[in-house]
Amino acid sequence: MLGTYSLYYSYDGANRLSNVSGIRATSYSYDAYGNIAAGSSNIYTYDDVPNLRCINCTNPASKVEHAYDGLNQRVSVTKAGIKSYEVYGSHGNQLIEYTPSQANKLIEYIYLGGKRIAQWQSDATNATTTTLAVSPNPAGVGQQVTLTATVTGNSPTGSVTFKDGGTTLGTANVSAGQATFLATFAVAGSRSLTASYGGNTNNTASTSAAVTLTVVATTSATTTILSVGPNPAGVGQQVILTATVTGNSPTGIATFKDGATTLGTESVSAGQATFITTFAVSGSHSLTASYGGNANNAASTSAAVTLTVGATGNIPLPVATLGQSTTTTTASTQFTLTWGSTNATACVIEKSLISGGTSGPWGPTVQGCGGGPAGSCYPGPTLVGTHLFRNICTGPGGTSLAEMIIHTVTPPRPVATIGQSDIVTPAGIPFTLTWGSTDATACVIEKALMSGGTSGPWGPTVQGCGGGPAGSCYPGPTIVGTHQFRNICTGPGGTSLAVAVNHVVTIPPPVATLDQSTTTTTPGTKFTLTWGSTGATACVIEKALRIGNSLGPWGPTVQGCGGGPAGSCYPGPAVVGAHIFRNICTGPGGISIAATVYHTVQ
Fold first, then answer.
1. Is the pLDDT of residue 129 over 90?
2. Helix (H, G, I), strand (E, B) or coil at 166
3. How many CA atoms, within 13 angstroms, populate the side-chain half-sphere of residue 90?
4. 236 vs 478, which has greater pLDDT?
5. I want to staple 512 with a disulfide (CB 3.0 to 4.6 A). Which of 243, 409, 424, 595 is the partner?
6. Does the domain formed by 511-601 have CATH 2.60.260.20?
7. What's the CA gap between 472 and 182, in Å, rounded?
8. Beta bridge partners of 425
């Protein structure tokens, strides 16, 4: 604080301090035993010893209670409901202070020669809170569900364990106060999900409230395609019937038929079922494959394939194979196709895009794939959707059956960003929020007011912010406190994780003003100083004499001037020369810049 200030002390007839005035004012009263009964806005209560028993007993917010043992040594102090215990040695010195409800619970005092010289305080471990968000909810069987744990505390690090009832789903590390885990559920029903933060050296462990996730059965449309080889085939020659089923990771049974006659059944694995048979009679056979469906997939039947059975030659028909490094990628992500064959001299790799459960036209050969009888390539389809690849090989024995695989390209999950032009602003001062995203079509900006280190409920979207996938706005919160802003974006790939920034709004510093009725007077002539302020509770008027080009020391406050946040007075300097007056004001937001005026006495 700038300037010079004065305090004045007054005493009663018993030589006891009764009043303090000046820059800080208070008064004191005493009971019949000479104890202070009231002072500095506090009321004191004593027992008959007398020991101080209570301060401000009738005000719960500022109430302080003292308790004593049989030796009249204080054993506990309770402030605003928080109780601390005190332990004394035989010499009467306090040895320990213990507060069970605080993080740094224990303080030990060290003495030398009867005088306290040091103290030791236990380390503080901050209490934490963990909240769990589950999206989407409800979710379908086999659908990916995002579990997001938000941990508040003293910059918590470590790991979070996610559970379904008593079953551990997995763990994830805490970064920037959050941990995320992706899960799927194979059976419909209700799930009770929790997230448990394990704590670290600075933060206690905590567990979220349980969140109920509803998993519902979903049935996807399927398509079944039958391939038959060799075709034609000889009497008694082995024929391979391959059913390729597209849908939501289909499992179950495929039934193979020759007309109305069932040839056999096989389990569907990785979208395919293969059945091997022979035919004892030459002629034409109308073959079909029927997928029976499961809890997640509807049944479907292939189109009929005509197999011609006749005489066989001595040269075997080529057999094609086709595999992939992964069944699902996001757009623009590479994967590997591996093709092979037996009894073939060349192979061709083709692809088709499945739309509405039906395969589109087969396109041209995939660039860089096929040619020789075996190899690998990186086809990298960039279109979002379900792609079908097939390998057809040729050799001396003819053309192989097409070997097909299914590959799904999904849109990438959006990524949200958020920034701000300033971390701290005074109330009423605007600042800029800037949000952005990748792979998103729209973003929503929300805010919450933090209290006690914990984010309050998220309010409605911030007016003028969000909407498009990127932009900037001026949210201008006027409430003093810590505000949290978050950006959540959506796109074809789903919903992004929320990203947040904290913004602190402070009380603005006071502004002081000072004016005078005239700039020049003669010795003994009065003039008027008028001072004022905004955001202040008190002001001080000081003066100094300018000697040559130098400013003399600032003197004491000008008598009769200042005190309140605004007013006027008659300073009347009698010394001939150049005088400088200044006004400095204080308030909840701090200290103002000095406002000055120059006055000449001549």
1. yes
2. coil
3. 0
4. 236
5. 595
6. no
7. 31
8. 505
Instruction: Give me the residue spans of the domains in the chain.
Output: 41-121, 129-216, 224-328+366-410, 415-506, 511-601
110, 103 Cβ separation under 8 angstroms: no
Alpha-carbon gap, residue 443 to 63, rounded angstroms: 49
Q: Which two tokens stand for residue 533?
A: 């302020």
Write down the pLDDT at residue 287. 97
Coil vs helix vs strand at 100: coil
Structurally, at CATH architecture level, domain 224-328+366-410 sits in Sandwich (2.60)
Question: For the residues of 41-87, what is the DSSP string, one character each?
Answer: TEEEEE-SS--EEEESTT-TTT-EEEEE-TTS-EEEEEETTEEEEEE
What residue type is 331 in one-letter code?
A
Q: What is the DSSP string of 226-268?
A: EEEESSSEETT--EEEEEEEESSS--EEEEEEETTEEEEEEEE
How far apart are alpha carbons 65 and 42 in whole angstroms?
A: 13
- Residue 85 structure tokens: 């215990």
Q: Cis check for the bond before 50: say yes or no (omega within 30 of 0).
A: yes
Domain with residues 415-506, CATH architecture: Sandwich (2.60)
**Which residue, among 236, 233, 239, has the nearest Cα to 264 in the 3D structure?**
239
What are the structure tokens assigned to 13, written together?
């007839």
With a threshold of 0.70, does the pTM exceed it?
no
Q: Name which of 222, 211, 278 is nearest 248 in CA terms.
A: 222
Give CA separation, 488 vs 357, 448, 468, 499, 556, in Å: 32, 14, 11, 7, 58
In tens, the pLDDT along 87-97 reads 988 888 888 98
My answer on whether omega of the bond before 100 falls inside 30° of 0, hence cis, is no
Q: Which residues of 42-61 are buried (b: 16+ CB within 10 A; e: fewer)?
A: ebbbbeeeeebbbbbeeeee
The one-letter code for the residue type at 534 is T
Tens digits of residue pLDDT in 452-493: 767 668 877 788 888 899 999 988 666 888 889 999 999 988
Contacts of 548 (CB under 8 A, 6+ apart): none
Fold entry, domain 129-216: Immunoglobulin-like (2.60.40)
Q: Which two tokens stand for residue 515?
A: 């004016």
Cα 360 to Cα 242, 352, 363, 479: the distances in Å are 20, 6, 9, 59
Residue 385 near residue 360, CB atoms below 8 Å: no
Q: Check for a shared fold between 129-216 and 415-506.
A: yes
Residue of 527 and 462 predicted with greater confidence = 527
Q: Report the candidate in 599, 590, 518, 533 with the shortest Cα–Cα distance to residue 563.
A: 533
Q: Kindly write down the DSSP assignment for every residue of 490-559, as one continuous string.
A: EETTEEPPPEEEEEEEEPPPPEEEEEES-SEE-TT----EEEEEES-SEEEEEEEEEETTEEPPP-SBPT
74: CB partners within 8 A, 6+ apart: 51, 66, 67, 68, 86
Q: Provide the pLDDT for residue 469.
A: 94
DSSP state of 565: S
Distance (Å, whole) CA 560 – CA 529 = 11
What CA–CA distances, in Å, run from 547 to 554, 573, 580, 582? 12, 15, 11, 17
